[in-house]
Amino acid sequence: MFVVARKDTQFRVVTQGFSTAWWKDTPSNRKGMVVFLRSLKDESGKPLFTYDQLAQLVGSTNRQAAHAPIQEFEGRGGDMGVFLARKRKVDGEVVAAVEVELRGVLWVGMEALAVRVNARLSREDLTVSNMATALDQVPGWRVRWCRAFF
Description:
Layout: E1 2-7, E2 10-15, E3 23-24, H1 27-39, H2 51-55, H3 64-75, H4 80-84, H5 92-102, H6 110-120, H7 128-136, H8 140-149
Antiparallel strand pairs: 1-2, 2-3
Helix pairs in contact: 1-3, 5-6, 6-7
């Protein structure tokens, strides 16, 4: 038995032998869990979970959806920190929306910024990590200038 339980904005994995704690349901947490669970082996060295089972974690029925995070993890030297901290790509539209959302705002948290930018662009997939990447592309003088005049 392998079940991905979801509650509000959290998920956990439930099996016959164990269950995980409730984790915040983010793409990074789901992909990290795929990598972790795939690393669990039985006494003979066989993985406890198939790619088909793990694909449920990323909301897919395609085994490749679970295999891709494993390949990415291995491609980053097998270092979980490097794998999870990888830079997210954002396009110019996202960067521009971040800049607009910062105008006239003295302070906004990264989660709130992600919510605002998602709403502005009619999206739901942009994360705090995307916001950090976008902020890297917004020159500091522009944010200071916008705050001074708006």
